[in-house]
Amino acid sequence: MARRRMVQAFEAAKNLGNYADVPVMPVDVDPQITLSRNSVTQPFYLAFEEDTVIALMAGRANVRLRDTNVTYWPLIPGDHVYVPAGTPHRFEPHEESVVVRYIGNDPAYRAAVFACEQCDAELDRLEWKQDLEVEAIAVYSEVVRRFNGDDAARSCDTCGAVAAEISLESLGWTPAPASH
Asked: Could you name the domain of life of the organism this protein comes from (predicted)?
């Protein structure tokens, strides 16, 4: 994946989709900055091995947190949210939003945490080691496909609700080709 040498966030974001999380700094810069343009709620909570900071460049949104005494942070342009390592969080835009995220440049563990929409219990957690050279959407799409394909993972042990499958199309992510 080609890295941009100069960040013009609003221009670059025009060509990005939901949760693209594209690294925009030269490869040797640490912390790295990723960029995305989001218009729908993130389908899962992300947990990072390292601390992260989220900055809203345009739009209005919330960053929802799990396992903390703070439920969410409302954001307007210019706001930043510090998210401690290991804290599951997700981005919930009220309108199309441009977001930058500060993360470590080295490969690090990530987790997608799926929560029950009825009672908020954790349904499933999928972990991987993320290398910034791999497109985030490719990883996130695979995580969603695995969640969608596992009825037990989508079933809540607490309240019995079954989560609906997540539409890759609604996120603007290319669905997996049908196998024959």
From this structure: Bacteria
